[in-house]
Design goal:
The protein has about 170 residues and is an alpha+beta fold. The chain is built from two helices and ten strands, in the order ααββββββββββ. β2 and β3 form a beta hairpin. The chain starts with a helix and ends in a 19-residue tail after the last strand. The structure holds dinuclear copper ion.
């Protein structure tokens, strides 16, 4: 065994490990998300079956008073185009992409959710006050990126309607 070579080799490995160890915050968030998230959604079959079929998109009321909102981001729109949620309750957002990397941002809030094809981005939001929040895509995703907008409408909790089947993905049901 050549100890000098081994020492050089080990020092090189150590030096290479130090780079990501000290610069981990520079690693692109979508890459980390890709390794962490579940990969059980096929972007090409979203509308055919599973959690993101059209009838399942929008706002679902949970028994604990919170709501779950499911959305699809695609070039160049968010589906549903308008989402209705009650104020002051946890909003469990689940969103996936049908094509490119998008980012779902709620104007006037800190919320900015990266959306990747093949993975489900799950986050917990909450909106204290009623109002309308414009949502927009904040990740450049192609020619129509700047037109990729939608809305989130927050209504007082006691005015939130009992959503009938087929009304999950609309703001008109109130
Ligand atoms: Cu989607 Cu930019």
């Amino acid at each position: 065994m050549n100890w000098r070579k081994l020492r050089v080799f080990l020092l090189t490995v150590l030096a290479l490990c130090l780079i990501p160890a000290t610069r981990w915050y520079q690693i692109d968030e979508p890459i980390l998300r890709y390794f962490r998230a579940s990969h059980d959604v096929d972007p090409l079959a979203l509308h055919l079956s599973g959690e993101f079929v059209e009838s399942n998109l929008g706002t679902e009321q949970n028994s604990d008073g919170s709501v779950t909102v499911r959305m699809i981001a695609q070039q160049y729109l968010f589906v549903p185009h308008c989402v209705l949620v009650p104020a002051g309750v946890p909003v469990h957002l689940r969103v996936t992409s049908a094509d490119a990397v998008h980012s779902l941002a709620f104007n006037g809030t800190e919320y900015n959710i990266k959306v990747l094809p093949g993975t489900i981005s799950a986050s917990r939001l909450q909106f204290a006050r009623p109002g309308e929040y414009k949502t927009m895509c904040r990740e450049f995703c192609g020619a129509g990126h700047y037109a990729m907008r939608s809305a989130l409408k927050v209504v007082p909790r006691d005015q939130f309607p009992a959503l009938q089947p087929g009304e999950r993905g609309t703001c008109a049901a109130q």
